[in-house]
Write a structure and sequence with these properties.
Blueprint lengths: L1 E6 L2 E8 L2 E5 H8 L4 H9 L2 H14 L5 H10 L9 H8 L4 E4 L5 E5 H11 L1 H21 L4 H12 L2 H7 L6 H5 L5 H10 L3 H7 L13 H19 L4 H21 L1 H10 L1
Antiparallel strand pairs: 1-2, 2-3, 3-5, 4-5
């Protein structure tokens, strides 16, 4: 995942690697010197304080970091003859906090912790604006992913408090004959308990629909299904036969879905949010 943020009229590239954010040091350096960004990064790297900071960061976050090679750089840091490039640092120490990306849209990238440190070395003012824009981007991403929890709860509440949805959410109580049937898949035990049918029965009843019975489930049903999975695992450990487990799970599903469709506190939350 790649993105760009604008900091003091400068575009700063970012990308996500292993669920961590990396920011382009090359772009940050261009704020200070557009023509000599690589030289600035190398000067920063040869600084003893920088070497110490990078080494501590790698020790904390990288189990494959090479401490012996790091000690070698640390002893040389500060000498007039000492030079260090991002590529040398990465290859010699097996560092992961700094990444060198080749190509037209490449450059030197670093984990956000390191990038903020470099930005402070370039300009304290630039660092503060960089952090502000980074936080704004993260907040926007959370909104796009639908993580505004209070509003999502209100939307779910609006759906489950209609009579039509309520009738479809509360699972039917299974008959004695149904609970005595042995299903080949444990997944179908959960499907029967919550939806009143197996995956095959759903497919047969919906020949033109894509996905499966769980893809068609309501959010509240998915929450209930997660609870049933945990309980079923516990019942299996206790040695309960499948028919008994199915009967128990069905009763639990009925109880939980009734609570979801009748919980007035959610309705009050919706009214307050409006």
């Amino acid at each position: 995942m790649t993105a760009k943020i604008k900091v003091l009229s400068k575009e700063i590239a970012m990308y996500t690697h292993n669920e961590e954010d990396y920011i382009c040091l090359t772009d940050i350096a261009k704020y200070k010197n557009a023509e000599g960004s690589d030289d600035l990064i190398r000067n920063w790297l040869r600084n003893r304080n920088t070497i110490e900071f990078l080494g501590i960061w790698e020790h904390l976050n990288n189990p494959d970091f090479k401490p012996v090679e790091f000690d070698g750089f640390r002893k040389l840091a500060g000498l007039n003859s000492f030079t260090l490039t991002p590529k040398q640092w990465i290859e010699k120490t097996n560092a992961v906090g700094v990444v060198s990306k080749p190509g037209r849209y490449g450059g030197t990238f670093a984990h956000k912790d390191i990038a903020f440190e470099f930005a402070s070395w370039i300009s304290v003012e630039f660092k503060l604006y960089l952090i502000k824009e980074f936080q704004r981007l993260k907040a926007d991403e959370l909104k796009q992913l639908g993580w505004d929890i209070r509003r999502n709860l209100a939307k779910i509440n609006y759906r489950i408090h209609t009579d039509a949805i309520k009738a479809n959410l509360v699972p039917p109580e299974l008959s004695a004959r149904e609970t005595n049937l042995v299903y080949a898949s444990e997944a179908d035990v959960l499907n029967m308990a919550l939806f009143g049918m197996t995956a095959k029965q759903w497919r047969d009843a919906n020949p033109g629909r894509k996905g499966n019975i769980r893809d068609d489930a309501d959010v509240s049903q998915l929450v209930c299904l997660s609870n049933l999975e945990n309980l079923n695992a516990l019942f299996i450990q206790e040695g309960a036969p499948q028919a008994l487990r199915l009967r128990k799970l069905n009763q639990i599903a009925i109880h939980q879905m009734k609570l979801l469709t009748e919980d007035l506190s959610l309705k009050r939350l919706e009214a307050k949010d409006k």
